[in-house]
Design goal:
By secondary structure, this protein is mostly helical. 86% of the residues lie in helices and 0% in strands. The chain is built from 9 helices and no strands. The longest helix is centred in the middle third of the chain and has 31 residues, at 92-122.
Length: 169
């Protein structure tokens, strides 16, 4: 997906490249979601293994939020995730809206990186390489920061568990 997004930006430019990449990702996601829906839970379980059961337990209660979070912080291969979501009880509306909202920020970052890379290739010079380096560092730091922020336990769940320990203890 990364290489296709960068290639799309090289070919079509900044805004059209972003929109085409987003449309392509959503189309691919929709097709593999439909394959998971058609194949059914049992067949997808054979492909995905225990990931299917873990996802079904955690993901089906809050479909849109679950899809959004999985798109923001990719936890498994894109196709496998789509198959699992299609075979689960996640509604198509939750899947498509969560996918759209969750993929937009990452694709925007990839698009900006591709645009800067394209500029540097077409107009090589110290300034272009410096900007490309800054872009790579900013993207890496932002990605690490977002991943840590999204995967750390919330204060609410920590306070609930502390309350339950005092209550039970």
């Amino acid at each position: 997906m990364t290489l296709l997004t960068v290639a799309t930006v090289f070919t079509f430019g900044l805004l059209p490249g972003y929109l085409y990449a987003l449309l392509g990702c959503l189309t691919s996601a929709t097709l593999t979601y439909a394959m998971g829906r058609i194949a059914g839970r049992d067949l997808v379980r054979k492909i995905a293994g225990s990931r299917m059961d873990r996802f079904r337990r955690k993901g089906t209660r809050h479909g849109l939020i679950t899809v959004f979070m999985i798109r923001i912080v990719p936890i498994a291969p894109f196709t496998v995730v789509n198959l699992i979501m299609g075979a689960s009880e996640i509604r198509f509306y939750d899947f498509i809206v969560g996918s759209l909202l969750g993929m937009m920020p990452g694709l925007l970052v990839l698009t900006l990186f591709g645009f800067q890379l394209d500029y540097t290739v077409r107009s090589p010079g110290t300034g272009g390489f410096v900007l490309l380096g800054i872009t790579v560092v900013v993207v890496a730091v932002a990605s690490i920061g977002v991943r840590r922020w999204l995967t750390r336990p919330s204060r609410l769940s920590e306070s609930k568990s502390g309350f339950q320990k005092r209550r039970n203890g």
